[in-house]
Design a protein that fits this description.
Blueprint (H helix, E strand, L loop, with lengths): L6 H7 L12 E3 L6 E6 L3 E2 L6 E2 L10 H21 L3 E9 L10 E10 L16
Parallel strand pairs: 2-5
Antiparallel strand pairs: 1-2, 3-4, 5-6
Protein backbone atom coordinates (compact mmCIF):
# COMPACT_ATOMS: atom_id res chain seq x y z
CA UNK A 1 0.00 0.00 0.00
CA UNK A 2 1.20 3.52 -0.79
CA UNK A 3 2.40 5.76 2.00
CA UNK A 4 -0.40 7.78 3.58
CA UNK A 5 0.34 11.51 3.76
CA UNK A 6 -1.36 14.45 5.40
CA UNK A 7 -2.54 17.17 3.02
CA UNK A 8 0.21 19.46 4.27
CA UNK A 9 2.89 16.81 3.62
CA UNK A 10 1.52 15.99 0.17
CA UNK A 11 1.34 19.64 -0.92
CA UNK A 12 4.88 20.24 0.40
CA UNK A 13 6.13 17.15 -1.47
CA UNK A 14 4.80 18.71 -4.69
CA UNK A 15 6.35 22.11 -3.87
CA UNK A 16 3.35 24.07 -2.57
CA UNK A 17 2.07 25.45 0.71
CA UNK A 18 -1.67 26.03 1.17
CA UNK A 19 -2.77 29.49 2.34
CA UNK A 20 -5.12 28.02 4.94
CA UNK A 21 -4.75 24.43 6.13
CA UNK A 22 -8.49 24.12 6.89
CA UNK A 23 -9.95 25.81 3.80
CA UNK A 24 -7.46 25.63 0.94
CA UNK A 25 -7.77 22.75 -1.54
CA UNK A 26 -5.24 24.16 -3.99
CA UNK A 27 -2.06 26.23 -4.06
CA UNK A 28 0.57 27.54 -6.43
CA UNK A 29 4.05 26.11 -6.03
CA UNK A 30 6.71 28.08 -4.19
CA UNK A 31 8.58 28.67 -7.47
CA UNK A 32 5.36 29.97 -9.10
CA UNK A 33 5.58 27.49 -11.98
CA UNK A 34 2.74 25.08 -11.16
CA UNK A 35 -0.57 24.59 -9.36
CA UNK A 36 -1.32 21.75 -6.94
CA UNK A 37 -4.94 20.68 -6.43
CA UNK A 38 -6.46 18.21 -3.95
CA UNK A 39 -9.10 15.98 -5.56
CA UNK A 40 -11.33 13.43 -3.79
CA UNK A 41 -10.85 9.95 -5.27
CA UNK A 42 -14.55 9.07 -4.94
CA UNK A 43 -15.61 12.06 -7.05
CA UNK A 44 -14.12 10.70 -10.27
CA UNK A 45 -16.46 9.17 -12.85
CA UNK A 46 -14.23 6.52 -14.37
CA UNK A 47 -16.82 5.53 -16.99
CA UNK A 48 -15.68 8.46 -19.12
CA UNK A 49 -12.35 8.79 -20.95
CA UNK A 50 -10.72 10.90 -19.79
CA UNK A 51 -12.32 10.48 -16.35
CA UNK A 52 -14.59 13.34 -15.24
CA UNK A 53 -14.33 14.94 -11.82
CA UNK A 54 -17.32 16.28 -9.87
CA UNK A 55 -16.01 19.04 -7.62
CA UNK A 56 -19.45 20.06 -6.34
CA UNK A 57 -19.33 20.53 -2.59
CA UNK A 58 -21.93 18.72 -0.50
CA UNK A 59 -20.78 19.96 2.90
CA UNK A 60 -23.15 20.69 5.75
CA UNK A 61 -24.47 24.25 5.99
CA UNK A 62 -22.20 24.99 8.96
CA UNK A 63 -19.14 24.46 6.74
CA UNK A 64 -20.51 26.32 3.72
CA UNK A 65 -18.42 29.49 4.10
CA UNK A 66 -15.15 27.61 4.64
CA UNK A 67 -15.81 25.31 1.69
CA UNK A 68 -16.85 28.20 -0.52
CA UNK A 69 -13.61 30.08 0.17
CA UNK A 70 -11.54 27.02 -0.72
CA UNK A 71 -13.66 26.34 -3.78
CA UNK A 72 -13.21 29.87 -5.15
CA UNK A 73 -9.46 29.64 -4.57
CA UNK A 74 -9.39 26.28 -6.38
CA UNK A 75 -11.22 27.68 -9.41
CA UNK A 76 -8.85 30.68 -9.54
CA UNK A 77 -5.81 28.40 -9.34
CA UNK A 78 -7.16 26.14 -12.12
CA UNK A 79 -7.82 29.17 -14.32
CA UNK A 80 -4.25 30.35 -13.61
CA UNK A 81 -2.91 26.90 -14.53
CA UNK A 82 -4.83 27.02 -17.78
CA UNK A 83 -3.38 30.43 -18.64
CA UNK A 84 0.18 29.87 -17.38
CA UNK A 85 0.88 26.13 -17.34
CA UNK A 86 -0.78 24.88 -20.53
CA UNK A 87 -3.66 23.68 -18.35
CA UNK A 88 -1.51 21.19 -16.44
CA UNK A 89 -1.45 20.90 -12.67
CA UNK A 90 -0.20 18.58 -9.95
CA UNK A 91 -2.69 16.46 -8.01
CA UNK A 92 -2.97 15.39 -4.40
CA UNK A 93 -5.42 12.48 -4.56
CA UNK A 94 -7.50 12.42 -1.38
CA UNK A 95 -9.67 9.70 0.11
CA UNK A 96 -11.67 9.75 3.33
CA UNK A 97 -10.28 7.83 6.30
CA UNK A 98 -13.84 6.64 6.94
CA UNK A 99 -16.13 6.41 3.89
CA UNK A 100 -19.31 6.86 5.97
CA UNK A 101 -21.08 9.84 4.31
CA UNK A 102 -22.53 11.00 7.63
CA UNK A 103 -19.13 11.59 9.19
CA UNK A 104 -16.90 14.58 8.52
CA UNK A 105 -14.25 13.70 5.96
CA UNK A 106 -10.77 13.31 7.37
CA UNK A 107 -8.45 13.14 4.38
CA UNK A 108 -5.59 10.78 3.62
CA UNK A 109 -3.49 12.18 0.77
CA UNK A 110 -1.47 10.66 -2.06
CA UNK A 111 0.57 13.11 -4.22
CA UNK A 112 0.54 12.73 -8.01
CA UNK A 113 2.53 14.66 -10.56
CA UNK A 114 0.08 15.76 -13.26
CA UNK A 115 -3.47 16.51 -14.24
CA UNK A 116 -5.00 18.76 -16.86
CA UNK A 117 -7.68 21.43 -16.99
CA UNK A 118 -6.95 22.38 -20.57
CA UNK A 119 -10.31 21.13 -21.85
CA UNK A 120 -12.29 22.46 -18.88
CA UNK A 121 -13.03 19.01 -17.41
CA UNK A 122 -12.95 20.63 -13.98
CA UNK A 123 -16.15 21.72 -12.26
CA UNK A 124 -16.91 25.40 -12.75
CA UNK A 125 -18.05 27.48 -15.66
CA UNK A 126 -15.87 30.25 -17.06
CA UNK A 127 -18.27 32.77 -15.49
CA UNK A 128 -17.87 31.29 -11.99
CA UNK A 129 -14.10 31.45 -12.24
CA UNK A 130 -14.10 35.04 -13.43
CA UNK A 131 -13.13 33.97 -16.96
CA UNK A 132 -15.05 34.23 -20.25
Amino acid sequence: MAKEWTLTEAFAHLGADRKNIRQSWSARTRDGKAVVVALWADRFDLKHRPPLYDGTETSAAANWVAQRTGDQERLQDLAWAQDNCAGEFRVVMVRAKDPDPYLARSPIAFPRTAGSCGSRNWTGSPASSGRH
